[in-house]
Design goal:
By secondary structure, the protein is mainly α. Helix content is 59%, strand content 0%.
């Protein structure tokens, strides 16, 4: 294991540490049942809209698409850029995201006959490669679609993951590479869709509620026994 990723002595130590963190978060916060979407297509659209914006803003944009009755491949493609941009405006970067949504829907129509399940039938490696080939879809968005949409076991890394893992001493910098952090988890936990789903969602929940960026609430934190940041007297 790379030195800049973890100081734990062995893979057994890392595995036990990760399971302890997961179990503590699960016991404290309970199951998160993420991703909140009525359909897999809605989940995918939400993942694209969620780039660089809060989930509350994404929900507003999704609601607008539903009210306009265009939350479908054809619905999005047949809607003018101007109207679509106005509907998704709450999600920010609306002109850029309008292009991304239309490009992705055109891709699904052209390559998979508008059948999302055909895309999701690909194995993880192929699915990830295909998703990453689409303009505007990076590692986090692609892996979110794979985990929450296709329901395949891959671990999603985001800024919350980096913050928490850094404070727990699993990584030495919040600038650690995405793939290194992902491998740290996937090489030391069972490749299980449910665990990866809940673990990522629980990390997001914990960092939003307790392990905040500027003013973390370390007192009575469920992870304080494992946390280097907390042990240094932060509160």
């Amino acid at each position: 294991m790379k030195q800049d990723i973890t100081k734990l002595a062995s893979s057994n130590d890392i595995s036990q540490f990760l399971y302890n963190i997961y179990n503590k978060l699960y016991e404290f916060w309970g199951p998160q049942h993420w991703w909140p979407a009525e359909t897999k297509f809605e989940m995918v659209i939400g993942a694209i809209l969620a780039q660089n914006i809060s989930w509350n803003s994404v929900e507003k944009a999704i609601c607008n698409l539903k009210r306009a009755n265009i939350l479908s491949i054809e619905g999005i493609l047949q809607t003018s850029d101007e109207k679509l941009a106005e509907l998704i405006k709450p999600a920010g970067y609306y002109n850029q995201k309008t292009k991304r949504l239309k490009e992705f829907c055109n891709f699904l129509k052209r390559e998979f006959n508008s059948d999302l399940e055909k895309l999701f039938a690909l194995d993880i490696s192929s699915l990830r490669q295909v998703l990453l080939s689409q303009k505007g879809i990076g590692f986090e968005t692609a892996d979110s679609i794979i985990l929450y949409g296709a329901e395949k076991p891959i671990f999603v890394v985001d800024s919350y993951t980096k913050r928490l893992f850094y404070r727990l001493g699993l990584i030495e910098s919040e600038k650690a590479k995405y793939e290194d952090i992902q491998n740290l988890v996937m090489q030391n936990l069972e490749l299980d869709t449910y665990i990866f789903n809940e673990f990522h969602a629980l990390i997001v929940k914990h960092c939003k509620e307790r392990c905040k960026s500027k003013k973390p609430m370390c007192k009575n934190c469920c992870l304080s026994a494992f946390c280097i940041y907390s042990s240094h007297g932060q509160n």
